[in-house]
Amino acid sequence: MSLVFNVKDYQGPLDLLLQLIGNAKIDIKDIFVSEVTDQYIQIVQNADSMDMEEASEFIQMAATLLLIKSRSILPVIQTEEDEEDPETTLIRQLEEYAKFQQLALQMQDFELAASRLFSKLPDEFPLPPPVYELEGLTLEGLIEAFAKLSARLLERDELAPEKHKIIRKDQHSVTTFMKNIMQKTRKGSVGFAGLLSKSPSRNEVVTLFLALLELLKQGRLKVVQESSDAEILLMRNRREVKISAE
Amino acid sequence: MLNDRLCGIIESILFVYGEAIDIETLANALGHEVKTVHSALNDLEQELQAAHRGLSIKRFANMVQLVSKADYATYVERVLQPVQRQSLSQSALETLVIVAYLQPVTRQEVEAIRGVKCDYSLQSLSQKGLIADVGRKETLGRPILYATTAQFLSHFGIQSLDELPELPADFPGEEGIQLKMELQPQEKTAVSRR
Amino acid sequence: MLNDRLCGIIESILFVYGEAIDIETLANALGHEVKTVHSALNDLEQELQAAHRGLSIKRFANMVQLVSKADYATYVERVLQPVQRQSLSQSALETLVIVAYLQPVTRQEVEAIRGVKCDYSLQSLSQKGLIADVGRKETLGRPILYATTAQFLSHFGIQSLDELPELPADFPGEEGIQLKMELQPQEKTAVSRR
């Protein structure tokens, strides 16, 4: 009997053994009293160009089979009590593996049936612009964002102050200047320049002048100027004096 | 119907094929005459009109294609493009705050304040419908002006922009923002609110 | 049928979607309860059994997919040659079956049964999405635990693991497997899933 097998055709040593058992038409339990063991060893011996990775498992099995064979020839070696003998182990392993092979065969039918169901590729479906549902938007969050932004801006400005000129809030208002003028003219006439601070800004001059015009319009103030380059003198209207005197 | 099975087979083929297929090719593969295939397609077409069918047949030239039913397109959209729940990032919120208080405002103005590029956050706010392009500023380059939308108001639960919290007098940001605004002088009163 | 329109809409969506879709996603997008969608799918499935229909529904895990009818596969193949059938190699199939029945399972446990190294077949099954790494076994070396995926169910055309063929009556089962496991003594119950 010439056996031309390639170990690559088998899913490992257990698969090969099961095939041999199947060919010999024997029960798994009779493996050691049949020629299967010899056949297995012969196949592994004859297999040429096995790569070591695959070969090791086949050779290891061959060794196990040889051990079992030698045990049957030699007088019985007493194994330790709770240790299973290699025959039992191998038979159990073969039976177990055979079951899974059987299941795999059934699953192959499932696979074939499922492969008759064809799916289709997704369509290229034109979509409208996405719709967003925004969550967690609160006015408080908005204010907080502003506060954070402001804090950061301030820090940035402090770090590079020379980059920016600081504009102060307007210190002067027409109303306060009007009050000032009325107060300072209580005891007689006052020169326009005398109402200004030591180094007045343009803004201050303009505002003072606006206040002056407003008081003139309301008739509460009189203005006298001797000549075009003389100082402007401001004095209260008599009526105004009267009223305040009362 | 005599063509029952043929209808089913054709539907099966058109489904897997996906694209439009030549009717003659179809007939040849099935070993039927073109006429028979046409008649089966007529049956199929009629059958597909029922409400419980979601497909329809498209025929043009000598081609035929199985497509989804136009009537149900909105439902398909709902699945393919579900509403996305999102919240705004801190950077988007900041950009939004600036737009809300200084609108209408250009990207350059927003960037001058934030000190970083804002294309992305402006785009994302636009996409989410919180701000909109309301025109162009009549300056060099005619940059786009952004303003907040009605949706912005509804998202933040306010009726009008007047309900936005007033900025505290000593708010450090106020000064900073107005300072930057000098770069692009504009009349605060000339703001047109939508 | 009350679900007429819903059936049509679902068919339309499944057609466009092409791939398997999560039933919950479908229900959410349609604003229906999962139960209602399931019942519409049942109706659709029944309706598709008629000879004049060329499609069928494939359900697995919590997914559903529209596919062509198996009965008409030969006709589809006539038009669409070559159809790529992806069947598994014998060694991959054996490994996969062991994983399916004993999941979650480690590489060492699979190898103990097959009697050969299984790194390669486990890796290739992972790549095909048929099995996945589901955690680590809390034993020495914390080996990776493998389990099958929804894709596995789809590949074999079954809805759930309950539909796997029953184990042969005299299956050595746990006992036999645990024998091999003695190499790595461990509690089968100590499995930690991620």
Helix content of chain B: 40-55%
| Total count of domains of chain B | 2
Largest sheet of chain B: 3 strands, antiparallel
Task: Name the shape of chain A in a single word.
Answer: rod-shaped
**Order of the strands making up the biggest sheet of chain A:** 2-4-3
CATH superfamily of the largest domain in chain B: Winged helix-like DNA-binding domain superfamily/Winged helix DNA-binding domain
Report on this model:
The complex is a heterotrimer, with 1 copy of chain A (246 residues) and 2 copies of chain B (194 residues). Chain A is mainly α. Chain A has a 3-stranded antiparallel sheet. Chain A is rod-shaped, with a radius of gyration of 56 Å. The relative contact order of chain A is 0.06. The C terminus of chain A is likely disordered. Chain B is an alpha+beta fold and 194 residues long. Chain B has 2 domains: 69 residues, Winged helix-like DNA-binding domain superfamily/Winged helix DNA-binding domain (Arc Repressor Mutant, subunit A, Orthogonal Bundle), CATH 1.10.10.10; 94 residues, Orthogonal Bundle (Arc Repressor Mutant, subunit A). Helices cover 47% and strands 15% of the residues of chain B. Chain B is built from 9 helices and 7 strands, in the order H-E-H-H-E-E-H-E-H-E-H-H-E-E-H-H. Chain B has a 3-stranded antiparallel sheet. In chain B, a hairpin with a 2-residue loop joins strand 2 and strand 3. Chain B is elongated, with a radius of gyration of 29 Å. The termini of chain B are far apart. Chains in contact: A-B, A-C, B-C. At the B-C interface, helix 1, helix 2, helix 3 and helix 4 of B face helix 1, helix 2, helix 3 and helix 4 of C. Strand 1 of chain A pairs parallel with strand 4 of chain B, so a sheet runs across the interface.
What are the key terms here?
heterotrimer; A: 246 residues; mainly alpha; 3-stranded antiparallel β-sheet; B: 194 residues; alpha+beta; Arc Repressor Mutant, subunit A; 9 helices; disordered C terminus
